[in-house]
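Second attempt. The first submission of ATP synthase complex subunit 8 had a stray character pasted in from the spreadsheet, which I only caught after the job came back as garbage. Lesson logged: always re-copy from the clean sequence file. Corrected sequence (55 aa) follows.
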Amino acid sequence: MPQLNPNPWFPIMLLSWLTFTLIIQPKTLSFTSTNAPSNKLTSPTPTSSWNWPWT
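This time the job returned cleanly.
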């Protein structure tokens, strides 16, 4: 059963994770967000009741 043989797949998986963590991840984390979050307090919007015509 070739599915149980980790020899060809384990180095490929290890190499892909190392590539991701050492090369790709620092590049994507260095991008800055264009819309930085602000500390603006939001006030609740006033709501009014709806007059249903059938009640």
